[in-house]
């Protein structure tokens, strides 16, 4: 199987508040990794970006692999670390840190141009409320289906999650339930 076949449809989702990076192949979740993200004074920028540069063994604080992102106004990336105790914490200058063995596993599966979506659910109205639970969106889910499945009015899900467009759900998205 060629490298192109393996990476068709590959995209990454980073949830900064949960300190997780999700690797998707098409609509299928391949693996979720714990990560470190930016500290409050230098947060990891949210938005939709792409991998624009890859480097083997950059060393030092960057660990064993570097995948640079096209985030304006800085030199941000997904990389390994020489400080594994930082994983799971908000301590970086905005980059996304991974355990070296995890970034080494992910690195060959990510190509230049791979989409990277960075979200921070704590900025949604749901984060300021004490929600009962959450649900990770699966391929094919719609907000209408979730409302019926969990017996919640659609308008409540829209408001609780701060959804501008209830038709735009994506696999791996975390929906807060009342």
From TrEMBL:
An example GO CC term for this entry is: extracellular region
Q: Does the keyword Glycosyltransferase apply?
A: yes
Domain (LysM) spans 133-177
Q: Which UniProt keywords apply?
A: Cell shape, Cell wall biogenesis/degradation, Glycosyltransferase, Hydrolase, Peptidoglycan synthesis, Transferase
Active-site residues, Swiss-Prot/TrEMBL: 79, 95
Keyword Manganese part of the UniProt annotation:
no
Q: In which pathway does it act?
A: Cell wall biogenesis; peptidoglycan biosynthesis
Q: Name one GO biological process term.
A: peptidoglycan-protein cross-linking
Start and end of every L,D-TPase catalytic domain?
10-119
Q: One GO molecular function term?
A: glycosyltransferase activity
Query: What superkingdom heads the lineage?
Result: Bacteria
Say which family it is in: Belongs to the YkuD family.
Task: Fetch the PANTHER family from UniProt.
Answer: L,D-TRANSPEPTIDASE, L,D-TRANSPEPTIDASE ERFK_SRFK-RELATED
| Name the record gives this protein | L,D-transpeptidase family protein
Please tell me the species this chain comes from: Desulfofundulus thermobenzoicus
The top of its lineage is: Bacteria, Bacillati, Bacillota, Clostridia, Eubacteriales
